[in-house]
Amino acid sequence: MELQSSSMLDVGKWPVFALLPPEELRLIRQACVFGSAANEAIYFTVNDEVFALGTNCSGCLGLGDTQSTIEPRRIDILCGKKIVSLSYGTGPHVVIATADGEVYAWGHNGYSQLGNGTTNHGLTPALVSTNLISKRVTEVACGSHHTIALTTEGEVYAWGYNNSGQVGSGSTANQPTPRRVSSCLQNKVVVNIACGQLCSMAVLDNGETYGWGYNCNGQLGLGNNGNQQTPCRIAALQGINIVQVACGYAHTLALTDEGFVYSWGANSYGQLGTGNKSNQAVPTLINMDKERIVEVAACHTSHTSAAKTQSGQVLMWGQCRGQAVAYPHLTHFTSTDDVFACFATPAVTWHLLSVDGDDYLTVAQSLKREFDSTEISDLKFLVDGKCIHVHKALLKIRCEHFRALLNETDEETIEIHQFSYLVYRAFLEYLYTDTINLPPEDAIGLLDLATYYRESRLKRLCQETIKRGITEENAITLLSAAVKYEARDLEEFCFKFCVNHLTAVTQTQAFADMDHDLLKNFISKASRHGAFKS
């Protein structure tokens, strides 16, 4: 069954979704965009179906082959499973945790990052079972080629690429299957995990933070630049309660329980938000202008940082479309996801995008839903014997003509004679949705109406629709309409089209039936354009 589109996920800012039809977009509840050029995507629908599209590098779409696909294809093995966490590497490899606590992995496996004991790429999602079979995993995080997983008991398991100790095993040998990260995490309860390219971070239930792996930029926050093969506590955060960490390519952000943000690591793009470009090997407090922060965001594929304040404002800094922004910059975005869609390179999702579970409707969605609905409508238009149900208040707000008309009448039904049902309905629908949905020939009637009601934006939209639908067959009809409704821009466009396709256009029925004055005008104008020179 299809749910209302109310709680649809807005993936519009990610170009990889641009070809999906609206009816498909309406079903998306979770999505992830990844890959070296943000050209891989996986999404989960309201019906618990899973689809993938993109270039399918290293089989990272989990479709059983390495064919690229511009149209979504279903990942059958994952359908019906509810996803609670998803992460990806740069290979790319992809890892998910399901609501049942199972872990599935697929894609690039050159360093055993799929945890199946081999280095063969995985073309379809496979259960990661070694040492996890009796565990319930709640969160997964991937670095470039390693994976870590957090269980309900607060244990961390790691596997894959280990050149810098990022698996936390005490060596630099790659780890072919999941291994519990113990040493000083033994008997500790981890509540949050994150990975940079080559390092791993964990936050404990008592607010302590531990890091391990690559540290040449100071991204472990230990005050030095030495790699660590086992977890080390960040001593500089002693007495500070951390609730969330996020890792960029080589920098780390940490959020405290009081809404402060600390940063450390690489800073050549200003990603630490300190106002300069010097690396920091110890946590540094970022000046947020007394705003309390509730979320920090970073992604191991980029040098971009973002944060959300308690009042819902979104800040960004670091590498933003090639620019180095060294201080947190206030944006007009409503979520940190938008920062990555619009400013990160590549423009991937920093975590699994999920729609809010509630059925909240935006103002625009609410209005759209009420158009031509009898439920609370207080006015109907009768056109060609058919009814269109609307709301007086909305028409007054949206259209000067109706503001005047409805202030003078208390009628509950208004008959319309000069426009067709199709055209008038499209006009009223436009007032509710800001868009028009008509074939070009019918848009002419709407152009007439827009001219009559002095709706200049609607007139512009009609002209665009008509331009997109011009053919040799209808060019003269459209030209005549443009002249009649004084749509100069459209007239010029149709005229040029007619001149460029003169032979075909002059053989159409519409040309034969052309109004005498218009024909005379057309021929003299065309000859001025040199159309009849042999």
UniProtKB/TrEMBL annotation:
Family matches, as SMART domains: BTB (SM00225)
Keywords, alphabetical: Repeat
Gene3D superfamilies, alphabetized: 1.25.40.420, Potassium Channel Kv1.1, Chain A, Regulator of chromosome condensation 1/beta-lactamase-inhibitor protein II
ATP-binding listed as a keyword: no
Domain BTB as annotated: residue spans: 377-440
Pfam families hit by this protein: BTB, RCC1
Superkingdom field: Eukaryota
Intervals holding RCC repeats: 48-99, 101-153, 154-206, 207-258, 259-310
PANTHER family: BTK-BINDING PROTEIN-RELATED, RCC1 AND BTB DOMAIN CONTAINING PROTEIN 2
Protein name: RCC1 and BTB domain containing protein 2
Alphabetical list of InterPro entries matching this protein: BTB/POZ_dom, RCC1/BLIP-II, Reg_chr_condens, Signaling_Regulatory_Domain, SKP1/BTB/POZ_sf
